[in-house]
Amino acid sequence: xxxxxxxxxxxxxxSPEEDGNQEYIGKWIxxxxxxxxxxxxxxTPKVKGTIVQDLEIKGDRHQLTVFFDGPDNxxxxxxxxxxxxAKGTWEVLHPQIGPLVLQLSRAVWxxxxxxxxxxTTFKSNWIEPxxxxxSVSVEEIEQNIRQYVDDANESAGLQFEANVDTTLFEDYNAxxxxxxxxxxQIQSNIRKFENLQIIDPRLIAxxxxxxxxxxxxxxxTSALVAQFEDLYDSIGLAQNNTEGAVELWRSIADSxxxxxxxxxxxxxxxxxxxxxxxxSLANSQISRAVLLPGVTTRSNAVELAESVDSYFQDMxxxxxxxxxxxxxxxxxxxxxxxxxxxxxQVNSNRQAILYLLKSTTDLKVERVFTTEINRATIEIAWTxxxxxxxxxxxxxIRIDKNYSDFCDWNDFHGKYLQMVPExxxxxxxx
Length: 430
Fold this sequence. Notes:
The chain has twelve helices and 15 strands. It is elongated and about 85 Å long. Strands 1, 2, 3, 6, 7, 8, 9, 10 and 15 form a nine-stranded mixed β-sheet that branches. The relative contact order is 0.11. Helix 5 packs antiparallel against helix 6, helix 7 (242-254) runs antiparallel to helix 8 (266-289) and helix 7 packs parallel to helix 9 (298-323). It is an alpha+beta fold.
């Protein structure tokens, strides 16, 4: 049997049960499929190469472009667009791969009746989810995150205390210098976030406590760890949405780039230990941040999951590069990054990603299309959102919620509040 006999002529979509399992048959030319491995990597001194732990495969990501043709393609397209609102997974009979179960992430309807009257094009992004048999509830994942974050903070603190040595004054000074720099960078970053003003007294007390500890010799490392943990927790508790919190912690971590060392002695180990403690605490807060509100769409959840994952990869790379500074030191004096906390850091990070991806089935889908003609703004809102919404009060005015949401999503002002001109790209979240 030749390839042309094995490949189906059409692609078939069956909508979720909520939508009545509607079937749509379209044309397909070809699209990429992305596959990624989850890998844990670890490099040890005096050993060439990298230890790699295979943490299994991520869900495949499909970009599917489907064409509906024929004299009724406009009607089919309207129905398909409406079905994309349904929550749940779709069954897809792929022309080359065969049966798939996919979760919609994003869809774009290219409305171009003049140029392509004989067909309509949809571009869409899908994720292949875990089978239901592997599923755990969002509540269970949330509990896991909280536990893994606590474990990660504890192991990071213990590792810090095991790594530092402030017996000699010069080594003590190296630790104080690194810790002072991290505190300064944190202070610079949090000034950008107005919501942190509500806990200023608490932060001031913590900064004062850290300053007192850093001016004491010998240095109380347990007390220093406790204050840094309180500092990160206090900042985290002041956050009110996931995206803003992840942005803050990534900004703080990125600002630590000047905290480095070429010293492969105890002073260098102390500097490295301070940097690792702060990067690890930031990783914990990023994991905890996914439990905050503010993730409203599936594409938003996927983007945040990628950001959470990339932070962990960046953190690991930074610490591995720092570790290379000690490659010529006696093995008993070398600094081995994440030697006591890597497992807990991985667990908290991966559970955070799982939480975001698991929640996608309950989030809205972003739909984008271009208006063919001038249309009344409220007419588009009501058509796309199933009619009028409840009456709410906004800025002292009673207004239809569906109309208000639609204008907010598209940042409509002025004349756009009344009329949307032709060839305007608009987005709807359903």
